[in-house]
Specification:
Elements lengths: L4 E3 L4 E5 L10 E7 L3 E5 L7 H11 L2 E6 L5 H4 L2 H7 L4 E4 L4 H5 L2 H11 L1 H6 L10 E3 L5 E3 L5 E6 L8 E5 L4 E5 L4 E5 L2 E5 L8 H13 L4 E4 L5 E2 L1 H24 L5 H11 L1 H9 L1 H20 L5
Parallel strand pairs: 4-5, 5-6, 6-7, 11-14
Antiparallel strand pairs: 1-2, 2-3, 3-4, 8-9, 9-10, 10-11, 12-13, 14-15
Helix pairs in contact: 7-8, 8-11, 9-10, 9-11, 10-11
The structure holds zinc ion.
The site of zinc ion (ZN) has 6 residues, from helix 2.
């Protein structure tokens, strides 16, 4: 079992929860708290709940709080398992996400429809007991034992119930899926939006702009890792998002509706898309096709430009 990587500037352990299957894809962030506790931002899929629990054990940290950026299976699937095994742990979630953690039935069904077999790979989430759920407010703080401060920003766009988590003392912003992905691929580091269907492009951009105004020193997207020059990274995300939307609006105007075909056309003219395309496999299917699908869907609904 690989040891979590400690990033001192952010005072955070990066747990590569999918390292056995696809390393460098899904990060769980473990924040050590004074007194031997830990808060986890995005516990990851249900299928790797045991891996995360094992990592906490390796680190000798006791789980005290789980914070989910949103309820999608790759981010929050393990929340119910962790709440079950650690009675008393609080699970912090956007109010619109809370019902889906309390009863994941509908979330699971819709995920099966959108993701197909991939949903089974992420695993089926267990319900989080209602008494463990804490609904967050925009601009509110998450009270953690030992006094580590975390500020919540509601950042819709990727999903209506998305929240990002800011540690103002260390200047690190946990962006979930609200500020795209930064992935190491064979073709180089790729920076790309992550916008599955029901993307709200204007909200996505507003959220990016709000996060940029914080001028974070570091950003930590769930996909993947802690990156310096956070404010610059967020600017790059704005640029790439606009570029892809404009390119896909043109591609859509030529009558292309199929995300796979549109992805190929986008990759032929855009360097970041090309890296994801060349990577193939999961990266191409999940981080390019899904994103292009969501963008085409938003264009089809008349939400861009
Ligand atoms: Zn994700």
């Amino acid at each position: 079992m690989p040891l979590p990587v400690y990033v001192a500037d952010a005072d955070v352990y990066v747990v590569d929860v999918w390292s056995a299957l696809m390393p460098g894809m899904i990060a769980s962030y473990v924040l050590p708290l004074p007194g031997g506790g830990a808060a986890v931002v995005d516990p990851g899929p249900a299928s790797s709940a045991d891996f995360l629990a094992g990592s906490l054990e390796q680190l000798g940290l006791r789980l005290e709080a789980v914070i989910v950026t949103h309820v999608h299976l790759d981010h929050a699937g393990a929340a119910g398992h962790l709440a079950e095994e650690n009675p008393g742990v609080k699970v912090y979630v956007h109010p619109r996400g809370a019902p889906h953690l309390a009863d994941p039935t509908r979330l699971w069904e819709s995920s099966r429809q959108v993701l197909g077999d991939m949903a089974d790979v992420y695993g089926k989430p267990k319900p989080v007991p209602r008494e463990s759920l804490v609904e967050t407010s925009d601009g509110g703080e998450i009270p953690l034992p030992g006094g580590r401060r975390l500020v919540v920003l509601h950042t819709p766009g990727h999903a209506s119930h998305h929240q990002s988590i800011y540690d103002p003392q260390r200047g690190v912003l946990f962006t979930g899926d609200s500020a795209g992905v930064i992935l190491e691929t064979a073709a180089g580091t790729a920076r790309a939006p992550t916008t599955p269907p029901r993307l709200k492009p204007k909200l996505y951009l507003e959220s990016l702009e709000r996060m940029r105004r914080l001028e974070p020193g570091m950003v930590a997207p769930t996909h993947f890792g802690v990156w310096p020059e956070g404010a610059r990274e967020l600017e790059v995300q704005v640029e790439v998002f606009r570029r892809w939307m404009d390119a896909l609006a043109e591609i859509h105007a030529r009558g292309v509706r199929d995300p796979v075909q549109a992805s190929r056309l986008l990759a032929a003219r855009d360097g970041e898309a090309s890296k994801l395309y060349k990577a193939g496999g999961y990266i191409r299917a999940f981080f390019l096709y899904e994103t292009v699908w969501g963008m085409l869907d938003a264009i089809e609904r008349g939400e861009w430009p």
